[in-house]
Design a protein that fits this description.
Elements: H1 3-11, H2 19-22, E1 30-34, E2 37-40, E3 45-48, H3 51-54, H4 63-73, H5 87-101, E4 111-117, H6 120-140, H7 145-150, E5 155-158, H8 167-171, H9 176-179, E6 190-192, H10 212-215, H11 221-235, E7 242-245, E8 249-250, E9 256-257, H12 262-272, E10 276-280, E11 314-317, E12 329-334, H13 335-339, H14 361-374, H15 377-394, E13 403-409, E14 412-420, E15 425-426, H16 433-443, E16 446-447, E17 450-451, E18 454-457, H17 465-482
Parallel strand pairs: 3-16, 5-6, 5-7, 7-10, 10-11
Antiparallel strand pairs: 1-2, 2-3, 4-12, 8-9, 11-12, 13-14, 14-15, 14-18, 17-18
């Protein structure tokens, strides 16, 4: 076993990993990468089919981002945001606000303030704390202290939601596998049905060899349940403070896509009941998803919410923010929410939250370079073609009898494996079907990670057509081997 692998086994505790299984075999030790290709300590090459856990946008060692980081290193790597501003973070805040509003501004609701942190969990934690305090201050103007204590602000999120691993973010989540262990230290939040068309009890059609959203037959019962949930909570005298959601596709829930119109309908309901909107675009942001396969716009929206003309009160960004280079996150919000925290020093209305590396210069420099790439004509054309190629290649997987559903939204695809596509019968978790398929793919030189029995394909934007064909054909071979 390689010395680096030995050190890893001796000392490193990996996230979301059963370490007993990990210690049974030599791990792949990545030492370098270029474009969509990664290389291990032995020089073996792999295609990065999940963009290094959904973060890498433009490929590894992109020259434009490398130059931006190197240029910033010649100035300064980091200085505190507590009491000081800096050049790249200020420029980035302006660019993010511009991209978030763009031509998609709705009802004059404008995102104008940016709070920087360092990962997706903290981006959600910031939004949660801000929404909680904002709601508390608004309600305290009309409610007695006793009533406020009895009915603190409550939050609504989707069944199967995952919004991160800080205590607040975990409280918003509803995946027992991840969150049940921490039940004793979480605060209670509510959930509502996710629009999981493939396994929806209201979908009256039999399985077909197509994305379940295309052949579903229902009466939008999932939207009706959202309305009922808001109405019931309002009747209790404690309306929801905020509705938290991943727009267009839920990631860790199993790559669950939302049918066209669901997002707009449910957020309109939330608005009608006075709830704030918290959009978790940690995965979906920066051009990763597009709900339309036929793209004609010369300028594509960078965020999923914009595709259904939904403007949230809080927009949470991370993962692809720096192009996958450095840990950095941002929470965008409105002037109205910002103003609620203004006051005299002795009033202590300050937002008491922060991170040592808030607004880090290297991360901001990388993010500025990434944004410039994303908004270039070349990148838009590249993403458009890659999305079409991905759709074409995925069709070959329908020939596999254990493929139950293929869900693609933009440059995200989830392939759900089942025992029998005619019955949708799932594999038991203990069978480790998704993991075994990904292990078989790794042996063939393609790296990705499953979500349960859903295999994820999320290629970097630089992925070539032959590389994409290899990713999909390798998945097909791996499934055939495991089954």
């Amino acid at each position: 076993m390689n010395k680096l692998a030995q050190l890893d086994h001796a000392h490193v505790w990996h996230p979301f990993t059963q370490m007993r299984d990990w210690l049974k075999r030599e791990p792949i030790v990545i030492t370098s990468g270029s474009g969509a290709v990664l290389r291990d300590v032995y020089g073996k090459e792999y295609l990065d089919a999940n963009a290094s856990i959904w973060t890498n946008l433009h490929g590894h060692r992109h020259p434009q981002i490398n130059v931006a980081i190197d240029r910033q290193l010649q100035k300064i790597a980091h200085s505190s945001a507590l009491g000081f501003a800096n050049e790249p973070a200020s420029l980035l805040a302006g660019k993010l606000v511009q991209a978030a509003n763009s031509k998609f501004k709705i009802n004059n609701l404008k995102l104008s303030k940016v709070f920087f942190s360092d990962n997706g969990s903290t981006a959600l934690e910031v939004a949660l704390k801000l929404a909680y305090q904002f709601s508390w201050r608004v309600r305290s103007a009309t409610c007695s202290p006793a009533l406020m204590k009895k009915f603190p602000p409550r939050f609504l999120s989707l069944d199967g939601a995952y919004h991160g691993d800080t205590i607040g973010a975990v409280s918003l989540g509803h995946i027992d596998l991840f969150h049940k262990a921490y039940g004793g230290i979480l605060f209670k939040t509510d959930k509502v049905m996710s629009p999981y068309c493939y396994r929806c009890p209201f979908n009256r059609t039999k399985p077909e060899r197509a994305d379940a959203r295309q052949y579903r037959k229902c009466h939008w019962e999932c939207v009706g349940l959202v309305e009922k949930k808001f109405a019931a909570q309002k009747k209790k005298g404690n309306p929801f403070a905020a509705f938290v959601f991943e727009p267009l596709m839920q990631g860790a829930a199993g790559m669950i896509p939302q049918p066209d119109g669901w997002l707009k309908q449910t957020t309109d309901i939330a608005r009608a009941h006075g709830a704030l909107l918290i959009a978790d675009e940690v995965m979906t942001g920066f051009g990763r998803v597009n709900s339309k396969l036929k793209i004609t716009n010369s300028k594509l929206p960078l965020f999923a919410c914009q595709q259904e003309n939904v403007q949230p009160d809080f927009l949470c960004l991370a993962k692809g923010l720096t192009g996958g280079y450095l840990p950095m996150a941002a929470t965008l919000t409105t002037q109205k929410n910002f103003d609620a925290f203004l006051g005299e020093y002795e009033e202590f209305k300050t937002f008491f939250h922060g991170h040592s590396f808030t607004g880090n210069q290297l991360g901001a420099a990388a993010a500025l370079a990434s944004l410039e790439l994303l908004q270039s004509k070349k990148s838009i054309q590249q993403r458009t073609q890659l999305q079409k190629n991905l759709h074409t290649e995925l069709q070959s997987l329908w020939s596999l009898p254990c493929v139950g559903d293929i869900r693609q939204v933009g440059l995200v695809a989830g392939i759900e494996l089942v025992k029998n596509w005619r019955t949708r019968e799932p594999f038991a978790l203990r069978e480790r079907t998704g993991i075994r398929v990904c292990e078989a793919m790794a042996k063939r030189g393609v790296l990705t990670r499953p979500v349960g029995n859903v295999i994820v394909l999320m290629p970097p934007y630089c992925t070539t057509k032959p590389q994409l064909q290899t990713m999909v054909s390798t998945l097909r071979e791996a499934v055939a081997e495991v089954m």
